[in-house]
TrEMBL record:
It comes from the Bacteria. Transmembrane segments: none annotated. Pfam families: HIT. GO terms for molecular function: catalytic activity. GO terms for biological process: nucleotide metabolic process. A motif (Histidine triad motif) lies at residues 98-102. Residues 5-113 form the HIT domain. The active site is at residue 100. This is HIT domain-containing protein. InterPro entries: HINT, Histidine_triad_CS, Histidine_triad_HIT, HIT-like, HIT-like_sf.
Length: 143
């Protein structure tokens, strides 16, 4: 896409600090650096989000994750863990509409990055969970 910032990075029209690249994907440091080493992994093919992946593209992109994650962890002995995040849609905090996966090194609980989840387990009965699961499973059979 002509105006996509990540497509421009793929075409080397915009500089980036590349950590990995092959014919199908590119990984580069996020300018925001939520923590040192924060890396983005993108497919070179423009797809807006995970909903546009087919199984082949998913296999290509996601098969690179362990290699890049292990390289990030090995690059700094202070890294204790790693968050892998993929936001899909504006409501899910996606701000660049070219699919990308965040690899965010974690140095400790006070490293400046957090993810907060609210526990809603008390709000659902087993029957309600079964209804939700059945709806999802029905769509798996269609697709």
């Amino acid at each position: 896409m002509d105006n996509c910032i990540f497509c421009k990075i793929v075409r080397n029209e915009i500089p980036s600090t590349v950590v990995y690249e092959d014919d199908q994907v590119k990984a580069f440091l996020d300018l925001t650096q939520a923590t040192p080493g924060h890396t983005l992994l993108i497919p070179k093919k423009h797809v807006a989000d995970i909903f546009e992946y087919d199984s082949e593209l998913a296999a290509t992109v996601f098969s690179r994750l362990p290699k890049i994650a292990n390289a990030i962890k090995a690059s700094d002995p202070a890294i204790k863990g790693l968050n892998i995040c993929n936001n899909n849609g504006e409501v899910a905090y996606q701000s660049v509409f070219h699919s990308h996966i965040h690899l965010i090194p974690r140095y400790g609980a006070q490293d400046g990055f957090s993810m907060q989840f609210v526990d809603h387990s008390a709000d659902y009965t087993p029957a309600q969970l079964k209804t939700i699961a059945d709806r999802i499973q029905a769509q798996l059979e269609v697709n």
